[in-house]
Amino acid sequence: MWRELLQGEWMVEFYAPWCPACQNLQPEWEKFAEWGEDLEVKIAKVDVTEQPGLSGRFIITALPTIYHCKDGEFRRYQGARTKTDFINFISEQEWKSIEPVSSWFGPSSFLMSSMSALFQLSMWIRHCHGYLTENVGIPVWGSYAVFALTTLFSGLILGLIMVFLADCICPSKRHRPPQYPHSRKLAPESAQLLKKLDEEQEADEEDISDDETEGKEVSNRSSSPSALQMDSSPLPPTRCTSDLNS
Questions:
Q1: I need a surface site. Which of 2, 56, 72, 148 has the fewest CB within 10 A?
Q2: Per-residue pLDDT tens over the stretch 51-87
Q3: What distance in Å separates the CA atoms of residue 244 and residue 42, rounded to the nearest whole number?
Q4: Is 135 helix (H, G, I), strand (E, B) or coil?
Q5: Which residues in the chain land under pLDDT 50?
């Protein structure tokens, strides 16, 4: 198990059954495994064809590949591949002279965990392809079409989910309330402007009231002499109806 490699000291060989170099290494590796208890080191081997997730964590690009694991630190062994060299590497602690794998690219990092998941997914797709073509009887092009449609549908679903999450986290401007970044700076100026407008309006109202009062006074003055003239003017002569009748 992967978690077991994070505790204690390990020597792990990654191999494939079809690899000639791996087949040549097996006798020496099995002899070295007999010394595991004496050296207090756990010796294991991983078939990359059966454990793609674990081989994906270590980014195995060549076979065979040997790693030394010590309490969560990983170092790649690049020495001679004999039993004696393996024993000296552990007993004389030659592994201390090798720089450990960076934590960013180490097997326990998030990046390598994602890579392991991709390797496992590829192996699962391979098994599904074999099942569809061999057991179900679907032609090869039909299996590819099924995977293409599945990939397209999965992409659409993931795209909708990402758009929904993006709209929830960062809503569009239409739904945002209007923001005025300079409102605090312009608040005193706007208050002064409103105050000036109020004062000007009050002054205009006072001018209008003064004009109205002056107009009333002028009309009163002009109307008073005419009234006097009408009172002082002589009345027109009238005839007495009694005289005319007589």
A1: 148
A2: 877 777 777 888 899 999 888 788 899 889 999 999 9
A3: 160
A4: helix
A5: 180, 182-186, 224-246
Beta strands in the chain (DSSP E): 9-15, 42-47, 65-70, 73-77
Q: Which residues pair with 207 in a beta bridge?
A: none
Per-residue confidence (pLDDT) for residue 129, from 0 to 100: 75
Instruction: State the pLDDT at residue 113.
Output: 65
Q: Which residues are catalytic?
A: 19, 22
Q: Give the β-pairing of 42-47 and 65-70.
A: unpaired
| Token pair in block for residue 134 | 């061999």
Spatial contact of 42 and 10, defined as CB atoms under 8 Å apart? yes
If you write DSSP's letter for every residue of 31-54 in order, what string do you get?
Answer: HHHTTHHHHT-EEEEEETTT-HHH
Q: Report pTM.
A: 0.52
CB-based burial, 150-162: b 16+ in 10 Å, e otherwise = eeeeeeeeeeeee
